[in-house]
Design brief:
single chain, about 775 residues, alpha/beta, Rossmann fold, Helicase, Ruva Protein, domain 3, 4 domains, six-stranded mixed beta sheet, 26 strands, globular, ATP binding, ATP-binding, DNA-binding, nuclease activity, ABC_transporter-like_ATP-bd
Length: about 775
Amino acid sequence: MQGAREHNLKNVSVDLPKRRLTAFTGVSGSGKSSLVFATIAAESQRLINETYSAFLQGFMPSQGRPDVDVLEGLTTAIIVDQERMGANPRSTVGTATDVNAMLRIVYSRLGSPRIGSPNAFSFNVASASGAGAITIEKGGKEVKERRSFEVLGGMCPTCEGRGSVSDFALDQLYDAEKTLSGGALTIPGYSMDGWYGRLFSALLPMDVPIKDFTAAQLDDLLYKEPTKIKVEGTNLTYEGLIPRIQKSMLSKDREAMQPHVRAFVDRAIVFTACHACDGTRLNDSARSSKIDGLSIADVCAMQISDLAEWVRGIADPGLAPLIAKLTDTLDSFVKIGLGYLSLERPTGTLSGGESQRTKMIRHLGSPITDATYVFDEPSIGLHPHDIERMNELLLKLRDKGNTVLVVEHKPEMITIADHVVDLGPRAGTLGGEICFEGTVADLRKSDTLTGRHLDDRARLKDAVRQASGAIEVRGAQTHNLKNVDVDVPLGVLCAITGVAGSGKSSLIHGSVSNREGVVAVDQGAIKGSRRSNPATYTGLLDPVRTAFAKANGVKPALFSANSEGACPECKGAGIIFTDLGMMATMESPCEVCEGRRFAAEVLEYTLGDKNIAEVLELSMADAREFFTTGPAKLPKAAKILDRLVDVGLGYLTLGQPLSTLSGGERQRLKLAIHMLEDADIYVLDEPTTGLHLADVEQLLGLLDRLVDAGKSVIVIEHHQAVMAHADWIIDVGPGAGQQGGTIVFEGTPRELVTASEKTITGTHLAAYIAD
């Protein structure tokens, strides 16, 4: 490959060995994904798509040629990225891996009583029937015929195949003891001082406590459909609280909500298992058909390792090829360390590591050779014990004659590579160059950032902080937890450890995260389009727009590229898109605004000595200085920028599109925005995801500052450096799934590594520490 310039790559040229395992290293944002995914894998997929007919290409996503001069010797690329699997409520582990599809065929053939085709066992297919007359044309004449149809599906009609039903906790919407005029409504933004008060007063008594409302008045307050009414001569639409909330709040993505709205929604919406199907998603008919006394709902609820043994017991010559394929797929779950899952598990509840390994299932038994497998941080969400197993799988793929490319930060995975390409030297505009290329042994001798940190070992602290209190968890039974009792200490840095699937997240998110005064940062990826950037996502742009408007005596909306200030030619995108049908959509910078996104007259207004486009071109570090002193001093903006710099994002520009950020950068951006929320307790779920060894040190410094400021930090983590730095460790295990769900250790890191009978975590931590 010669002359790669995608994203921040600076004319990179590199030769990669075939049929070898190559690791790509470097700090988050150095250009690893740009080289591997946006250049090598993207070009491979584009060339494969071009082998299809123009008709088929019209239905496929169009891909432009990467910005690279020469790219030769490509083979078919199979990508396993770090994006979590979709959170569609209808998607489960079984549907995402096609295991459910195979099981439905087995039950349609062998289930007793026989109820119909495989669709009769699908919770995504509803039963429907109908009849009527239709008119068709035959031989130039119109002929009327009567036809009927019937579809037999397995969907539960009550929950529509979701397994749960949602309801509103009414006590979170209003205080029944108060009147409307007295502030009974506890919904964000519902003040009686403005138009809401006039709207409600037209239909409801304002000075009567809600508990004294008649049934009709309460129904109007909560459920009334949109109704046109006239208030003070103005035509308005009245709508009950619940349908209004459903449209204004619940239709939005949870991550896109403002923090106070998100907190309200989490309190007010209650999900309960569907009473009609007991949460199985299937109707009575689908659950009535059984094999060896078990319905398809029963086997989907089994642990996959147990299900694999049950499937082996099915002896039917006519289904032998299907049973063999089903058994092989289920065994792949066990080999990859996911045997503790069940097929009914929603994909949205899987951790990042579980999602990534679930996507690998399809490839493990594949007979394909001479392909290029591309993995994006396969160690995400994995305990050091599980990383050993993942290494075996990667080496097996290589030994079958495939080329394996791995973007990785963990030393345990880098050391198995045949070849290493280190990018840097730093991130963003300071990266995009190849700093080293060679063997792991030579990397250790090199003076690159990765080489210097590759053999880093943590040291146990001489003294740990003492807890100032504790959160008492009693009888926790979420998922695989076995009636767990534990005290989670406050005022310290507490690490929750254990192998993947042991019950760490179930314990903390099920019993701690939902408490008052707790801010939880999970592994969910932030979503962002080309029009969103760090300034809009963090809310930083709001005080900046206001300051610009105040300084120039104009409206704040003028300083939004998505509103009145947008360039009239590109509508604020900064880019002109030209659709070329089956070929890649052409993108070219807007000639009117030169890619700056704003109308020319907007750029005449300044704050300090910069216009809004120049401010968005500032790096986080430079912007903090700009808004801290001088005429542009803006404490609200400076506070947000302090956090962004604290998490190591000082090199990013305010206006960089979120769609161009790496996984580690997105993780830290999300961490920064949650750190701005005022809370006493922070729960962080694997905050080291996507972080280079050097970045982990900076993260630990941030966590220390939080604890020293009187906060409590609870970290669900696999990284040994974080474990060693903690004041207290709660280890969950001993294994995963049914073999986990208990507390196997509570104490300091030093006690964990010196215990006479070490847990799995204790064994790996003892091997990692320097002393």
